[in-house]
Design goal:
- Chain A has 303 residues and is of the alpha/beta class.
- Chain A has 10 helices and 13 strands.
- Helix content of chain A is 34%, strand content 27%.
- The longest helix of chain A is centred in the middle third of the chain and has 16 residues.
- Chain A is globular, with a radius of gyration of 22 Å.
- In chain B, 70% of the residues lie in helices and 3% in strands.
- In chain B, strand 1 and strand 2 form a beta hairpin.
- The longest helix of chain B is centred in the N-terminal third of the chain and has 33 residues.
- Chain B is elongated, with a radius of gyration of 21 Å.
- Chain C has one domain.
- Chain C has 11 helices and no strands.
- In chain C, helix 3 runs antiparallel to helix 6 and helix 7 packs antiparallel against helix 10.
- The two termini of chain C are 24 Å apart.
- The relative contact order of chain C is 0.14.
- The chains are: A alpha/beta (303), B mainly alpha (267), C mainly alpha (254).
- Chains in contact: A-B, B-C.
- At the A-B interface, helix 2, strand 5, helix 3 and helix 4 of A face helix 1 and helix 5 of B.
Chain lengths: 303, 267, 254
């Protein structure tokens, strides 16, 4: 049995003159929750579509489940679970029928699908909406249904494209809880997201993407240790940033605040006060993947 | 509760057509609107009563080749042919466009083992299934009116399916080029003259000679001739030619449609 | 009245995007229809003296004018009304302004009549060019045709307002508009219909429009005096407008 479910080398995707994915290398191991973190337009969804074999690579090599997407797309797809960004649920069918027909697309017998539907509806917490049409469901419900649908064929590899984008905070937590469960069961997940909290919560390992390239790779902890000072002091100042020079390891000026990277943000703040600077706001926090992204690209993830 | 995912995965699917899954999906949807689906049967029947019977009384008999037949017997096969065309065109244009652009139904299908060619063939198959049902219904009505003279009349059903195949394929291919709903106005600009000028309501020799040449280009004309030959029991070798035109049109359309779907959906 | 005119204006603005194709079909479809049915099929009918004193083309022309008015009114008062209520929700948006229900419905109906007038005028012009009718005959037939539109437009709006979704509209065309088009005396006199069905045809507004138009254009001996037809159509229009108004109040406000 192969251990690397996805292997990419020098993978490129071009649309005309535009290069969406610009020669990236990565591997996804069995049982791993692997993430692509990056802002909109970084090339995450294009990469997902190539892995899902619905978009041919322009160049480079890609193996999915040990097979070639260009010639063995159907075999690969029969073992994938895909949760696309826009759900693409069948609006003309009910919740249950959506699962049934999707299972039939995989040539599963009706009996087999029916048996799985009960489990999947329970997993998606949609058992009481079984006969409802899809349209009136809330955003979170639709998303959970899409995930359940992606599991109908007991996939070896599950692709989740922006799983919680557009959901309210409560719905996101419900969804994360469901995805943890899949992780605990040992499923292999590939997740794209532009939320650093999502990446931190769900991913064992991730790559940070920007402008079609991979700019960093590792576990959330490793990335934070490698690319930040550990803590961050956030300030809102009247004074020019220059007044902070020498405080912390590094300062970054954003539109509405200044970030000071420091091993010890407490003492950095004391130093600020000692210089007679009175910030309108000050906040001390742990460094996050957001700070990693900032360090690597000089930009914020969500603008 | 059993595990939702497995480490081994399902059996790997290989080759073979899976168009019947698309058909299955459409059947599942139409379960809820079967009244509307079946109601498609009535349109050609209404036309048969109105034009065939009502206007037919004003026309009297019509000369077809060496035979003299009632106007209803003359126009019935043409109405069957036109409704096969209209049904196929409607199904393969507006419906497909909706699913393509709004419903995103095909995006979901293509993330499973289904391929664009399965989608194209499945949708065309669905339109033929409906068309076949309407054709059978129409045959029953023809028989009740005494317009079915021999068992050969039954051959009009596969002939109507061939018309459906030709137009559904081409309609679907055309749909893949449409950008907005407004482009669909063009479809009526094509189908109305086909409906009116394909030796539908009167024999070809009524047309001025110049128009006759144009009519021979109309694919519906070939369909009408084919169906009419079966219902009136007048056969000759030209039928093979008519059938070949429709078959060729359908195959080319199917090829273009699946190629285009592949380009649209698998970018 | 200004509220109503604002609503008409909004319809006209939307129409600017599609007027080109509608003008094209406004002339081309009548020409096709008259060539195929009037001239082509007509040659068979006339060889049989089927339409009595008239050519089939002349027999068909006034009736087609009324039938086209019905189809245009049905088109304008069905899907666009459903879209306004349910899909693009422009009705809801308009009601948040000083525009009231009466303006909304009145404006929509005025717009529908403007479209009917356009289509009927184009059709009448084509009929004159085909030599089906003289200019005077065509002008006379236009009035009953417009009245047919006036009768159908509020009726279809009423039906549409009461629908939950658009599958009912497919049924309306399939079992309402198309059978009316085929059986209300346009293509053949209703005396050809089976005995039992004739009183049914008399009940349809389109038959009144067709009969009246044929009476005025051809001076064919009328079954009924034209005033009766006019009264029937006007009464139908008023009743349906009242019903549509009530239904729209229920749908949008209650």
């Amino acid at each position: 049995m192969i251990e690397d479910l996805v292997e990419a080398e020098g993978l490129v995707k071009r649309f005309g003159d535009f290069t969406a994915v610009d020669s990236i290398d990565f591997t996804v191991g069995r049982g791993e929750a692997f993430g692509f973190l990056g802002p909109n337009g970084a090339g995450k969804s294009s990469t997902m579509k190539m892995i899902g074999t619905v978009s041919p690579a322009t160049s480079g090599t890609l193996r999915v489940l040990g097979m070639d997407p260009a010639s063995q797309g159907r075999q690969i797809r029969s073992r994938l679970g895909v949760v696309p960004q826009d759900n693409s649920l069948d609006m003309e069918l009910t919740v249950e029928e959506n699962l049934m027909i999707y299972g039939r697309y995989f040539d599963l017998s009706r009996r087999e699908v029916r048996a799985r539907i009960a489990d999947l509806l329970e997993f998606a917490q949609l058992t009481d909406r079984r006969t409802s049409k899809v349209e009136p469901l809330s955003g979170g419900m639709k998303r959970r249904l899409t995930i359940a649908r992606g599991l109908i064929n007991r996939p070896e590899l599950i692709l989740l494209d922006e799983p919680t984008t557009g959901l309210d905070p409560q719905a996101r937590h419900v969804l994360w809880d469901r995805l943890y469960r899949l992780k605990r069961e040992g499923a292999t997940l590939i997740i794209t997201t532009h939320y650093m909290d999502e990446a931190e919560q769900l991913c064992d390992r991730l790559v940070i993407m920007d402008n079609g390239r991979i700019v960093g790779e590792g576990s959330p902890r490793e990335l934070i240790d490698r690319h930040t000072s550990g803590e961050v002091l956030e300030l809102r100042l009247e004074e020019p940033v220059g007044a902070l020079s020498g405080i912390g390891d590094h300062t970054e000026e954003l539109a509405d605040r200044v970030l000071v990277a420091s091993r010890d943000a407490e003492s950095a703040l004391a130093e600020v006060h000692a210089r007679g600077i009175n910030p309108a706001m000050s906040l001390i926090r742990r460094a996050t993947l957001e700070d990693v992204f900032l360090t690597l690209t000089g930009r914020t993830l969500v603008d | 509760m059993s595990a939702l995912t497995t480490r081994t995965g399902p059996p790997t699917l290989t080759g073979g057509w899976r168009a019947h899954r698309v058909l299955e999906r459409n059947l599942m949807v139409s379960k809820r609107s079967w009244v509307l689906v079946l109601s498609g049967f009535f349109e050609p029947v209404f036309y048969l009563f109105s034009i065939g019977v009502g206007v037919g009384a004003m026309v009297g008999d019509v000369q077809v080749g060496a035979r003299t037949v009632s106007y209803a017997a003359f126009v019935a096969p043409a109405l069957l042919s036109s409704s096969a065309m209209n049904g196929a065109v409607f199904e393969s244009t507006l419906n497909i466009f909706f699913k393509l652009k709004w419903g995103k139904v095909y995006d979901a299908m293509l993330s499973t083992p289904l391929r664009p060619a399965d989608v194209a063939a499945g949708e065309i198959g669905w339109s033929l299934l409906r068309g076949g049902l309407y054709a059978i219904g129409f045959m029953v009505v023809m028989a009740l009116f005494g317009l079915a003279e021999s068992w050969w009349t039954l051959m009009a059903i596969p002939a109507a399916l061939l018309i459906g195949f030709a137009f559904a394929s081409v309609g679907m291919a055309a749909t893949t080029f449409m950008r907005s709903w407004q482009d669909f106005d063009l479809i009526n600009v094509v189908t109305l003259p086909l409906f009116l000028f394909s030796a539908t309501f009167y024999p070809l020799d009524v047309y001025p000679p110049a128009i006759q040449t144009v009519t021979r280009i109309s694919p519906l004309y070939h369909g009408v001739e084919l169906v009419r030959a079966f219902t009136l029991g007048m056969f000759d070798w030209s039928l093979a030619g008519h059938a070949a035109v429709l078959l060729g049109m359908g195959l080319i359309g199917l090829r273009v449609a699946s190629g285009r779907l592949e380009r649209l959906l698998l970018a | 009245m200004t509220g109503r005119l604002r609503v008409v204006e909004s319809h006209a603005r939307r129409y600017r995007h599609t007027w080109r194709s509608s003008v094209f079909t406004g002339f081309v479809n009548p020409a096709f229809l008259l060539a195929a049915m009037g001239l082509g099929l007509g040659s068979l009918v006339d060889a049989n003296n089927g339409a009595g004193a008239f050519s089939y083309l002349a027999f068909l022309a006034p009736g087609l004018l009324a039938a086209t008015a019905m189809q245009t009114a049905a088109g304008e008062s069905s899907y666009p009304v459903m879209a306004g209520i349910k899909w693009i929700k422009s009705y809801e948006a308009a009601l948040a302004t000083p525009i009231g229900i009466r303006d909304l419905l009145g404006g929509q109906q005025i717009w529908s009549m403007i479209r009917v007038a356009q289509v009927v005028a184009a059709f009448a012009l084509v009929e004159v060019l085909f030599g089906a009718l003289s200019v005077r005959q065509a002008a006379l037939a236009t009035i009953p045709a417009l009245m047919t539109g006036v009768a159908f437009s509020p009726a279809i709006a009423w039906f549409t307002i009461r629908l939950e979704n658009d599958s009912g509209l497919a049924g309306l065309f399939r079992f309402g508009i198309i059978p009316l088009f085929l059986f209300s005396g346009t293509f053949f006199p209703i005396s050809q219909l089976p005995e039992q069905m004739q009183p049914l045809a008399v009940l349809t507004p389109l038959w009144h429009g067709v009969e009246w138009a044929r009476d005025w254009a051809l001076g064919s001996p009328p079954l009924w005096p034209w005033q009766w037809h006019a009264t029937a159509l006007a009464a139908f229009a008023v009743a349906c407008f009242w019903g549509a108004h009530r239904a729209l109040v229920r749908r949008m406000i209650l």
